[in-house]
Design brief:
By secondary structure, this protein is of the alpha/beta class. The chain is built from nine helices and seven strands, in the order βαβαααβαβαββααβα. Helices cover 46% and strands 13% of the residues. Bound molecules: adenosine-5'-diphosphate and adenosine monophosphate (AMP). Adenosine monophosphate (AMP) binds next to α2 and α3.
Length: 217
């Protein structure tokens, strides 16, 4: 079984874009905590209702809710790509403990390196398929017809938290609460870094290289 991988990077770094590519090509299973939370919110579950206010403000949803949600997803044999999780040291420790308890190896983290101005540009131009989580960008990766998903032909939306003030808040939160995870994984010798400013194809290539799948094409 391939290793579980943590895609570590700021909002807008391209984690979801790369996760979808890897899932298609190599049968990884993507666990995107943002997608799971939005799905819970759309269905009006207790978790969704509890998370909504934090998400709207660009704050992190409390660790206990997130950890419980992810633990509920840790089934099956496929290698997992964690996208948008962990986001705090407490979450990273809980993930290590949960995987260890299930007899799985500890995950490797790949850090997506990219500066703030480019992140803002990516998030401001992002269009999302709320049904599948697939993302486009109005300039960098436009759909064939504006506002329409190429695959399912349904409408794309701009996420409520992809507006300027909330983007700023989310990037501040990333720097304060999630960036320490670089040190956490580096200290454990479980960190690789890639240049996330490059094109989607170039980033995919670099990602495959660091996770040792470059010859699996
Ligand atoms: P994350 O999941 O890390 O928040 P996304 O994968 O949703 O990031 O990407 C954010 C935005 O940037 C999307 O609009 C996506 O189409 C675009 N994008 C992703 N990767 C690249 C890239 N390598 N070059 C240009 N735009 C990209
Ligand atoms: P994302 O789709 O990854 O950009 O996440 C959207 C929002 O969901 C974040 O701004 C947080 O409010 C919440 N969220 C997603 N993942 C986590 C997590 N691992 N820990 C805490 N909050 C999260």
């Amino acid at each position: 079984m391939a290793l579980d991988i943590v895609l570590l990077g700021a909002p807008g770094a391209g984690k979801g874009t790369q996760a979808q590519l890897l899932c298609k090509q190599f049968g990884y299973r993507q666990i995107s905590t943002g997608d799971l939370l939005r799905d819970n919110s759309a269905r009006g579950t207790e978790l969704g209702v509890a998370a909504e206010d934090f998400m709207k403000r660009g704050a992190l949803v409390p660790d206990d809710l997130i950890i419980k949600m992810v633990e509920g997803e840790l089934h099956g044999d496929e290698a997992v790509l964690f996208d948008g999780f962990p986001r705090t040291v407490a979450q990273a420790q809980a993930l290590d403990a949960a995987l260890d308890a299930r007899g799985r190896g500890l995950p490797e983290a790949v850090f997506f390196q990219i500066d703030r101005p480019l992140l803002e540009e990516r998030l401001l131009g992002r269009w999302t398929n709320p049904r599948t989580g697939r993302v486009y960008h109005e300039r960098f990766n436009p759909p064939r017809r504006p506002g329409i998903d190429d695959e399912d032909g349904g409408p794309l939306i701009q996420r409520e938290d992809d507006k300027p003030e909330t983007i700023k808040r989310r990037l501040d939160v990333f720097e304060a609460q999630t960036l320490p995870l670089v040190e956490y994984y580096d200290h454990a010798h479980r960190l690789a870094a890639i240049d996330a400013t490059r094109s989607v194809d170039e980033v995919a290539h670099a990602l495959l290289h660091v996770i040792g799948m470059e010859h699996a094409h």
